[in-house]
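Internal tracking record. Fields below are filled automatically when a chain is submitted to the structure queue. Please do not edit lines marked as system-generated. If the sequence contains nonstandard residues, flag them in the REMARKS field before resubmitting.
Queue: standard
Priority: normal
Entity type: single polypeptide chain
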Amino acid sequence: MMNLSPAYESWLEETLSKGRVEGLREGRVEGKVEGLREGRVEGKVEGLREGRVEGLREERMNLVQNFLAVKFGGVDEQLEKVINPMLNLPAEELSRLILTLNREELLLRFGEGNADEVTG
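SYSTEM-GENERATED OUTPUT FOLLOWS
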């Protein structure tokens, strides 16, 4: 029986070691799968949010371009440059300014030198 005890201990140690290695491997695989799943979900949520924000901004830009085109008979390079600064305004103020300001006033207010002055 003395010969079995060291053999049993060796087998037990080897079995436990294999179990640890297998457990670590399975844990890593499960961790990767879970991480990928969570990452995909978070990525989808973030992508949807960014897509909505970008879509709304693009829609607003198209709306401003259309208003300017109708009001001034088209959007040339000068007017194109003032559209982005105008998009930072609240909708009510943006609408009011498009309806009330003439071309020169819009260019002065939102032109390159006044890009930071989008309110007031």
